[in-house]
Structure formats: structure tokens, C-alpha cells
Amino acid sequence: MGDLSLARRSKAAASKTRTATALTVRRRDARLVTLTVTVGYLLVYLWALGHLAPGLGGYAVSVVDEPLSQLFRPALGPFSFTPVARVQLGPVTYLFSLNTVLGLGIAALVGLNLGLTYLAWTQPTACGLGQSSTGFLASIPAVLSGTACCGPVVLIVLGIQASGVLLTTFQYLLPIAALLVIGSLVLISRQIDPQRL
To answer: Angle at which helices 98-122 and 28-49 pack, to 10 degrees?
Structure first.
């Protein structure tokens, strides 16, 4: 009996999330928020990983030998991959790896979260003001998910002495961040009333 109720609630939550996500895509203002946050987040993510950096000028594309076999080769940790291509576009150098695909997935989830948060803020009677900030709060671990580079740099900037155990946990922030952002997406979707938009 409990399993049937849980399945029914899960199905209702998934349906509500799909409906709210569709609203985010259909509404021009929410779509703009979602796309802006997604692109901005991806750029910051790639910069934190060192895959987007200032270039030396010029235009060039170079690809490693056997890029498909190299694409899935881990670099520094379980969710960090070796770049397989370098693109120089004048003042910017971009390194393509599987990290770009993972970063785009997380960026899209964060963008959808903030797009949904924007929709929730446009209907303040549907939810409390403090509750609609969960999309932003859930994206914080995703920002720190730069495996071996971004997390320790944040700790150094904050002046926190971290033990080896704490530094090792940074490699698991990417899957934790993905789960938190998906959970946040479901929670925010529950606060949006499609009839009011």
C-alpha cells in the first residue's frame, strides 16, 4: 500500500516538474533567465576547471590522436576528464573534454532551477519568498565541483585549512550537486501554479 502511494506521489511530482519546465521554456522572460544562467554557469565552470583561459591570439584547432578513445580517460579524479581538443579563438583558448558535456548538464539544471525560481517569484501568493531560493542554494555544490582545482582554491581563498579527507570529498561534489539540483528542481516545480501564469 505504501509503495503504491509512493509511486503515485513520484509520478505526480514528475508530472508537475515536466509542466513547470515546459512553462519555463514557453515564457520568454523565464527562458531568458534560464539561458543566461546556463551560459554564464557553463563559462564559469569551464574557467574554474582551467578549460577556458586567456589565449595568445590567433585562430587554431588541434585535436589529439584517437580522440574518441581519449575522451573517457580520467584526468585528476573520477569526474574529471582529459581534454581532446584545443580551440584558439583570438584572446580565448578553450579545451574540449567530457567535462564540457558534464558542465553543460549541470549548467542546464542550474539554469532551469533559476528559471523556475524566477517563475515562483512572479507569483508570490503561490509560495513563500524564502522557499523559492532553493535553486540557488542547491547550485553551490555544483560550483565547487571542479574536482581537484576549484574546490581547494575556494578553501585557500576563504583561509580554511582543510585536511586530506576534506579535499578528497571534492571529487564527489559533481554527482552530489546533480542530485541536489534535480531535487531542487522538483521542489520548486511544486510551488508553481500554471493557472496563474
So the answer is: 140
According to DSSP, residue 123 is labeled -
Angle formed at CA 41 by CA 132 and CA 58, multiple of 5 degrees: 165
Rounded to whole angstroms, the Cα distance separating 12 from 6 reads 10
How far from 123 is each of 39, 51, 120, 132, 163, CA to CA, in Å? 26, 39, 5, 11, 45
The answer to whether the beta carbons of residues 106 and 45 sit under 8 Å apart is yes
Torsion sign across C-alpha atoms 15, 20, 25, 31: negative
Three-class SS state of 55: coil
In this structure, the number of other CB atoms found within 10 A of the CB of residue 189 comes to 24
Cα–Cα distance for residue pair 24/19, rounded to 1 Å: 9
C-alpha cell at 71: 575522451
Which residues does residue 156 pair with via DSSP β-bridges, in sequence order? none
In the structure, how many helices (H) and strands (E) does the chain have? Answer: 8, 4
Predicted local distance difference test score (pLDDT) of residue 82 = 84
Place of cell 578528497: 168
Asked if the model's pLDDT at residue 161 lies above 70, the reply is no
- How does pLDDT run across 6-37, given as a tens digit for each residue? 888 888 888 888 888 888 888 899 899 999 99
User: Where exactly are the structural domains of the chain?
Assistant: 23-51+98-196
